[in-house]
UniProtKB/TrEMBL annotation:
Gene3D superfamilies assigned: alpha/beta hydrolase
Name assigned to this protein: BD-FAE-like domain-containing protein
Chain segments annotated as transmembrane: 12-34, 54-71, 78-94
Keywords recorded for this protein, A-Z: Hydrolase, Membrane, Transmembrane, Transmembrane helix
Keyword Transmembrane appears in the UniProt entry: yes
Organism listed in the record: Modicella reniformis
Amino acid sequence: MGVVALVRSIWVLSYAVVSAAGLLLTGVAITGLPTKSRTANVVLSLLSNHMSELPWTVILLDVGFYIWLSITGTAIRLFNYVNVISVAGLLYLFKRSIDSKATVDNFLNQLSKDSRTCVELPGPNSPRFWRQFLNPLHWPENYTFYEDIPYWVSTEQMPILRSESRNSILQMVLDVYRPNKVQGGDDRPVFLYIHGGGWTSGSKKWTGPILSELLSREWIVVSTGYRLNYKDGYPTQLIDCKRALRWIKDEIRIFGGDPQNIVVGGDSAGGHLAALLALTPNLPEFQPGFEKVDTTVQGCVPQSASMDLMDMKNYNHYNTRARFIKEVARREGSAESEENLKFLTEHSPIFKINGTSVPFLVVHGSLDTMIPVQFARDFAQKFQKESNAKFNYLEIPYGHHAFHVFPSPRTWYTVIATAEWLAINFDRHEPGKQTSAANESRQKVQVHELVEWGWSNDE
């Protein structure tokens, strides 16, 4: 076989594989069928999100591949038909993304009854719609970024270094995003974002489009990291997030944030941590060494979050209890043991609702195969029975797990609705306009170096 023939056969095989995979993943994205393997669900969920939230990107890549094969004379008619079917499915996925506007409109209309404000979502006739849709790498503008600020205190540094490694202490940092119009003492609301990743992976850089929307409304956004592979396992992640909250309470006024107006949110495992942080304020067992620090927050927005680690109704299609006990919490014994079941209950937000006064907005996609939507529905039902706090639930049709990190129409509708809920409940004055109280607060704020939060050589 000559070199040219070999190259052509490789292109033919590649075209066949890509075409078949495209058709399969498009079908998975449409149906949202789960598997009994967590690994398979993770991979399929990620790829399904690409197909469902970025269908035009997939179509353009496919067209480019087809044109190249046509030029080289290696295109196969059979797979052309396969790709036509895939493209039809991708167009259908895009239509479903746009159709989610109706659900979000209903949600906003319900909010407007209380706030007397009305927000119009951008449709295909809106410049904003196309500006966001045509820029999948959309990033906010006019802000200042403060990266990798340590949130541990000097007395915590050496014990952590002795028991773990330098890498662990480097994970205990956060990022602050400050709109350029905001100055120290402005007392703007603060959004603490906790990333997902199954409690053992992920990055604080995974904020998604919610970052752009909140910065445009002049919110301070703090995205925190936490230890991912601590030898003693969970609840180290929760304790670290409470340490980050401690830092915010002490330092955020320097950046223009209000330490008494903090909303915590996150996606997937980060949503679980956000909910548990909001529902367990000031509990000493989750605040070792800083038991007297106030860790209350004013609101919570968990997205695609695991609200019930017990999963006694077996909503998940794989054994999540065993995985959490063995891989995340790193506890001994069976996940079904009395001690471990008690542990799972103590760390499930659905069992911590009773008596809370923290307002919640729960967001979940209806086709989530990683954390089925039934978890969110059960949490919503139980919250409304056991708490008088404000509660809203936004279920997004055909949204896959953590769909909201992809900049699709469905995501932007969800982001705008989330930001509007936050504005109605927590934004005390109009962005860009400083009240006399804010000006006075700005004058009084003491700008100082963050000397407590940094490396120390003290033993």
